[in-house]
């Protein structure tokens, strides 16, 4: 796989993909590539015509949320830009409140396109959060995230302190109180202290405590890329769930003995019996079903293809571009065909087309452009147009410019 998106922001994409760092790291991206995708000046357009729902943004001061009534229109009042009022957001920034935009990718197409590709290369869901912090301000008190986070400084400067985890690899539902974290950082020196400038990155692994303060000279605009985390606890729950639903495994059908609710010794014996039944059931576990169930749930969290709302007019000379990131995985079939696994569908390419499309999907061929007549004489012209229309319909290909 050609790690095109990872190479923009990771210094060693292959090694980082294989084993993400377990300790904080910093590095600088040449030419500040994310600024070309989502610059601070783009926020004007986002607030003018894209962000309009009250829950799209929030504003915070030293970790405390600002009442949305201070920057949103009253309920039931319709404004040209929607519920969020840009002039009020600007006023709050002047009052040292920080702006937070969750799921930033939903509001800016270039970022959404980039994250689609990055998610495909990483193989895990990635979300983005934008942080605009006024000069000399701290948006959040020291905190930890139960996920890996890449802090990308787009513009301005921000000083960060990162501390070792209070809880190693915290679960998503494991919350540590702010007071406890404040006491924790007050008793120790930071593991890492660094000031990020435009194009600088800070990798904060899951659970590491961190806090940032913007420079006095200008606003700080950074985008945090949040990498989805699924733990072995989650997978164990999937295994148990599949185990207990297998009709062909009879170990769990018997009723519990009468009296187990009030007789502690009887319940103890019953629990041991259940553990034995689980052990025996695991020997007959349909592992393939577990794999299918787990991948289905994980893929549901990942961005799907960009499906066209209306069908395009596609003829023999219509220029199309293949979108490799629209395909989660592919598998070779015994008859030489290639099955493409999409988030919500599968499509099979006949063996006559595999040699044309496979190099593009694997990244060996970087030119993704093609026209239906390129598939002739592998298939007939009419079949090539049908293939192009089907791939466009599923979001695997888009009409190029």
Describe the fold and architecture.
The chain is 31% helix and 20% strand. The model has no long low-confidence stretch (mean pLDDT 91). It is an alpha+beta fold. The protein has helices at residues 4-9, 13-18, 42-49, 86-94, 109-122, 178-186, 232-245, 264-283, 287-300, 351-362, 381-393; strands spanning 25-28, 57-61, 64-65, 98-102, 126-133, 148-155, 158-163, 192-196, 200-204, 209-214, 220-227, 320-322, 329-332, 338-341, 346-349, 369-370, 397-399. It has three domains: 4-227, Cupin (Jelly Rolls), CATH 2.60.120; 232-294, no CATH class; 320-399, Alpha-Beta Complex (Outer Surface Protein A, domain 3). It is built from eleven helices and 17 strands. Helix 7 (232-245) packs across helix 9 (287-300).
Characteristics of this structure?
single chain; 401 residues; alpha+beta; Jelly Rolls; Outer Surface Protein A, domain 3; 3 domains; 8-stranded antiparallel β-sheet; 3-stranded antiparallel β-sheet; 20% strand; globular
Question: How many H/I helices?
Answer: 11
Estimate percent helicity. Answer: 25-40%
Give the name of the CATH superfamily of the largest domain. Answer: Cupin
Which percent band covers the strand fraction? 15-25%
What is the top-level CATH class of the largest domain?
Answer: Mainly Beta
pLDDT averaged residue by residue = 91
Strand order in the largest sheet: 1-9-6-11-5-4-2-3
The name of the CATH architecture of the largest domain is Sandwich
Number of discrete domains: 3
What string, H for helix and E for strand, traces the elements in order? HHEHEEHEHEEEHEEEEHHHEEEEHEHE
Shape: globular
In total, the number of strands is 17
Low-confidence stretches: none
For the terminal residues, how far apart are their CA atoms?
25 Å
Backbone structural class: alpha+beta
CA radius of gyration is 26 Å
Kindly identify the CATH topology of the largest domain. Answer: Jelly Rolls
Largest sheet: 8 strands, antiparallel
